[in-house]
Amino acid sequence: MTTVIEVGLPARRYPIRIGTGLLDAAATWRDAIRGGHALIVSDSHVAPLYAQRLRDALARASGTPIHCEAVTLPAGEAHKDLDTASKVLDALAQLGATRDACVLALGGGMVGDIAGFAAACWMRGIDFVQFPTTLLAMVDSSVGGKTGVDHPSGKNLIGAFHQPRAVFADLDTLATLPGRELRAGLAEVVKTACIGDAGFFAWLEAHADALLARDVDALTHAIATCCRFKAGVVVRDEREAGERALLNFGHTFGHAIETETGYDTLLHGEAVAIGMLLAARLSIRLGMADEADAQRLQVLLERFGLPTTVPRGVDAGALFARMRLDKKNRADMLRLILWRGIGRAEIVDDVDPAAVRAVMQG
Ligand code: NAD
Ligand code: GLY
């Protein structure tokens, strides 16, 4: 069975399909390709597993034949940069991709962000379709149209808003996902609950073991709940003028930790897990929330095998300097996403730098 969630943006309405067997069922996604050119963008781990299946399915699909090529990027956050994005643009040039071409992003958030960014840049914007293959990409990065690459001075500093034409989350692909990556995806699932759904947080506490065991029903419920929540936020605030910033709960701390540790020590979801706990602790220090909710968060993150402390040797002052370059900040003002407790995240302006430093020093 496939679960379908609509992202009802006025300028572009698109479906998120969550199910099994989707990669091979080109009948469900062939129509998302409007022209005669398609480029599959994947990475060195995902391409050998799934790229040929996507190509074969497309070749079998009825309708006008599509000229399809593939480009394989080096895997890992350390390669989410302009050089790698250029490889996708080079492949589009080689394909002779015209304005009606379509990029098929097959992979995790790194592939999705780069492929979407290249699609946003090529001829000032061509179509792209997301085939997320990590839990993190299924619950978060494939939805909502944020695309981009990292800069040495910070995460995702170069990018564009560019919505996909459709998202196809094939749960079968999660069978090959390493356990550590699955757990990193669970951090973004917990994030959704922390921001605005205390009932979902309790559901996660009750179903943690099923999720870790990759139970399809539990995963489908978690992915659909996150996508429905995110779709609602994105429809109300596509360009992050306000509410969408809530989706960055834990991210200002997390991005700083990722950048400071060089993108190759912690996974994005792991850094977000640490960041969420720091945000919860800062909320206690500022008198916004009580200890009990931070404690519940810590217990749930630990059950998911996620880190909850800043790695040894990372300097609090350096982290703080990184946080100042966050996209949410305005001029000299530090803007953070904090909470009043589970399910009640808030945007807080002008946070006291001394309190932030103190929390980071533990
Ligand atoms: P990732 O794309 O780097 O994938 C993680 C690892 O898993 C990679 O080594 C990849 O090759 C491998 N992999 C992917 N799918 C696999 C599968 N099915 N089987 C085996 N291996 C597989 O990382 P991620 O955690 O998916 O995404 C993190 C990225 O997403 C970060 O760059 C982050 O900034 C971005 N992100 C973007 C948004 C957004 O709204 N655009 C939201 C959240 C995160
Ligand atoms: N992951 C944050 C956002 O999509 O806005």
Please give a handful of descriptors for the protein shown:
362 residues, alpha/beta, Rossmann fold, Dehydroquinate synthase-like, alpha domain, 13 helices, binds nicotinamide-adenine-dinucleotide
SS strand fraction: 15-25%
* Helix-strand sequence: EEHEHEHEHEHEEEHHHHHHHEEH
Note the quaternary state here: single chain
Shape: globular
What ranges have pLDDT less than 50 throughout 5 or more consecutive residues?
none
Please indicate the count of domains.
Answer: 2
Mean pLDDT: 95
- Rg over CA atoms, rounded to whole Å, is 20 Å
> What structural category characterises the helix and strand content?
alpha/beta
Task: Provide structural commentary.
The protein is an alpha/beta fold and 362 residues long. It has two domains: 3-176, Rossmann fold (3-Layer(aba) Sandwich), CATH 3.40.50; 179-361, Dehydroquinate synthase-like, alpha domain (Up-down Bundle). The protein is built from 13 helices and eleven strands. It has helices at 26-29, 47-60, 82-95, 109-121, 135-141, 179-196, 198-212, 216-236, 251-260, 268-285, 291-303, 316-323, 353-360; strands at 3-8, 13-19, 37-43, 67-73, 102-107, 127-132, 146-151, 154-161, 166-170, 336-339, 345-348. A seven-stranded mixed β-sheet has the order 1-2-9-6-5-3-4, with helices on both faces. Helix 4 (109-121) links the parallel strand 5 and strand 6. Helix 5 packs parallel to helix 6 (179-196) and helix 7 (198-212) packs antiparallel against helix 8 (216-236). Bound molecules: nicotinamide-adenine-dinucleotide and glycine. Residues 140, 144, 146, 244, 247-248 line the site of glycine.
